[in-house]
Amino acid sequence: MKHGSHCTINDSEDELDGQVEPYHLMEKRNLEKSILLELEREHHLKVQEEVRSKLAALEVGHQNEIQRTISAFARLQKYAESRKEIDRRLDVHFQRRIAEVLDKHLSMVQRDHEQKSQIVERRIRDDAALEEAKRKEQAIKEEKLRQERARQEAEARQKEAAKLAAETRKTAFEAAQKEAAEKEAAEKEAAKLREAAASQSSQNSQNNNAGIKVFADKYALEAESRRRALVHNQVPENIHLRKEFAKYDRQIAKSISKLMPTTDNVRSRASELIKALDGQDCPRPIACCLFANKIISIVKSRNTKDKTFGNLAFACGYVMLLVTNQVPDAMDYLLAEFNRVCIYTVPKHLHALNAQARNRDYYRLIGYQEENGQLESTESYLTYVVAYVKLYAAMIQTEIKGVRHPHGLAEGWKWLALFLNALPATTATACALHAFLKMAGFALHKKYGSQFLKILDVISRCFLPALKDQGNKMQSEAVNNLQNYLNDKIYLQEPEGQYLVQQLLSKELFM
């Protein structure tokens, strides 16, 4: 701008200079003309000075205007930035408020949802409690009815016994005179016979127990004795031959003979068996004993070497759980029957200390069966040991949601600990141990984790080395089975047949 203003001044000067006539010093002029020229020149210079001063003032004003414009622009920019900062703060504050309102809303929604869930859960619990109360009330009524029937039956038996006793006394009184001498002689002879029989029985008992060492935990032996006493006290001998119970025996046997490892079949068989055990005309202990005998005898009636026997064992496990859940008394009779047919379900092992003790009675005592007067082979015996232990393991590992197991995995864990603590490493115990782990190892590992792995470590470090020292053909096979189970980590795989049955039952029947 300064350069432009300067050019304007120079141009104005040139214009002014162009307008002045050339002054010729040599030209003669008159005084007036000279004065006039001098005035014109002064005037011209004054005008030039005024133009210069005005131009300078304009330039200064222009510069001031530029500065004011720059200052105004700076203030405007600063104001814009301050407004932007204020807007940003307002936006952040607004977003915070929105977030707070949204969080408050979500919290209210969550509290409302929780309250509704609690109401639903409380309603479900109340319904369950009501159903449980109804079930208990029904059970109390049924128990009262059973007790009343038992009382009536007992009174009837007492009356019949009293009547029979009266008749006997009458007959005895009438015949007393005639048979006094014969009766006295017969009593003396009978006393002699009883003494001889008692002496012979005591001698046989001593011979049977001599040279036999029992390996078992005290707790396991007490439990076995308690179950045996229960059956002995509650169930008459040879109930299968009693005509009054033949109907129930056939009914239970028929239901179990139809058992197949399918969902519908398991449900139908369990329902039939529960109804049979709740029969009005058959005492509960006898019905439970018949059920236990028939369900476990499936080992004898089916081919245990068939690959499908494992599936059938799992189906039996579900049936046993469903039945004992509705009829809790049946579990003691089941365990008593397991202990009777296979001592390793106790767990217990009998060891003959010498060749004399290893007689026919010893083999019968440990579970060998006789056919046509001949004891079964050791291979056949071990096959049945494996089958019985598999059936027992299938029962203890069976779980159904919402159904309490009276003898479940915790009892299986206890059985395994008692087995390894008390029993020696033999071919029979190795077969039983492998059968148990094969059926229940997956469930035990799933529940007990690292503790179960410690049990397997004990088997690897202690049981297997002791077993290898025996060195026979069957022992070698048992060692390989256990070694492969540990090396291949079979306990990480669900046993064949168990997954399908459990899924179908849990989803279709009991959920």
TrEMBL record:
Query: What are the entry keywords?
Result: mRNA transport, Nuclear pore complex, Nucleus, Protein transport, Translocation, Transport
Give me the ranges of the annotated region Disordered. Answer: 135-209
Q: Name one GO cellular component term.
A: nuclear pore
Compartmental location: Nucleus, Nuclear pore complex
Family statement drawn from the similarity comment of this UniProt entry: Belongs to the GLE1 family.
The GO annotation for biological process reads: mRNA transport; protein transport
Source superkingdom: Eukaryota
* PANTHER family recorded: GLE-1-RELATED, MRNA EXPORT FACTOR GLE1
This one is known as: mRNA export factor GLE1
Broad class of the protein's primary localization: nucleus
Write out the biased-composition intervals (Basic and acidic residues): 135-195
